[in-house]
Specification:
Rossmann fold; NmrA-like; alpha/beta; 9 strands; Ergot_Alk_Oxidoreductase; single chain; seven-stranded parallel beta sheet; NAD(P)-bd_dom_sf; two-stranded parallel ribbon; SDR family oxidoreductase
């Protein structure tokens, strides 16, 4: 039995679906089962619980062999994920696959708070002696549907604080496929994988790709990180999240997202999805 924590998110839901397709027995930890009906319909067993509730974690971990660990960004992230790690140890789970942060951010003295918390959780898992696999993905292509698509559709404008920095964006479905490969094999114990798309590109090139996909001109406007922060605050984003996004933007501007890995092909046997195929698939989201 594989327990998926974070099964209602972009990556976790895809992990659960791909595991079912592969023939694995899957249980998902969910706070609200009504939001996971689609997973239940696929045959995923739902365990109602919360990372802040040790008793529910113990119940969810019962009979579990492997755990996929991912949770929403939160200032208590290390504490909450640590609760899951402790429950996994109590249940004598044999393997933990954790989705972490982009490599340059994951360190005890890293520039981003969430990255530092990812490091704390990684360090905690390593200290347990439980076999682990840490996945360190870059920028998710799916994030563009939330951060970029509305303005592109309305104004034909791609505004972001990325300067000309190249970023090897990765499709969340490919991250999930790598996780599934790790969860269904003993060959990836105690390994750390960077997970990226097939190539790095800047936002000016992204604008050109969106132009081709939508059939209307899209232009890129570089926005200084602190100006972007003001816009985020006007949208009602909490200060800690704004600061995190600014920290990550500054990392990307410094080239943190430029590295291209072969992890997707190496672990899954297929090439990672391209930004061109993603843009074509989701072209309607970038149109009026």
């Amino acid at each position: 039995m594989i327990l998926v924590i974070g099964a209602t998110g972009k990556i976790g839901g895809e992990v659960a679906r791909q595991l079912v397709t592969a023939g694995s027995s899957v249980r998902a930890l969910v706070r609200d089962p009504s939001k996971a009906v689609a997973l239940a319909d696929l045959g995923v067993e739902l365990a109602t619980g919360d990372l802040g509730d040790a008793a529910s974690l113990d119940k969810a971990m019962h009979g579990v062999d492997r755990v996929f660990l991912l949770s929403v960004q939160d200032l208590r992230q290390a504490e909450l994920q640590g609760n899951a790690v402790d429950a996994a140890v109590r249940a004598e789970v044999g393997h933990i696959v954790k989705v972490s942060g982009i490599a340059p951010s994951v360190s005890p003295g890293g520039p981003a708070e969430i990255g530092r918390q990812h490091w704390q959780t990684e360090h905690r898992i390593e200290a347990t002696g439980v076999p682990f696999t840490f996945l360190r993905p870059g920028f998710f292509m799916q994030n563009l549907l939330e951060t970029a698509a509305p303005m592109v559709a309305k104004l034909g404008l791609l505004a972001a604080p990325m300067n000309g920095a190249p970023i090897a964006m990765v499709d969340a479905r490919d991250i999930a496929a790598v996780a599934v490969a790790a969860l269904t094999s003993d060959d990836h114990y105690d390994r750390v994988y960077d997970v990226t798309g097939p190539r790095a590109f800047g936002y000016s090139e992204l604008a050109a790709v969106l132009t081709g996909a939508t059939g209307r001109r899209v232009r890129y406007l570089d926005t200084p990180p602190r100006l972007a922060a003001k816009a985020l605050r006007r949208q009602g984003q909490p200060d800690w999240k704004v600061e995190h996004l600014v920290e990550m933007a500054e990392l990307f501007r410094a080239g943190a997202g430029a590295t291209v890995s072969t992890t997707v092909r190496d672990l899954t046997g297929h090439a990672p999805r391209t930004i061109e195929s993603f843009a074509a698939e989701h072209a309607s989201a970038f149109k009026r």
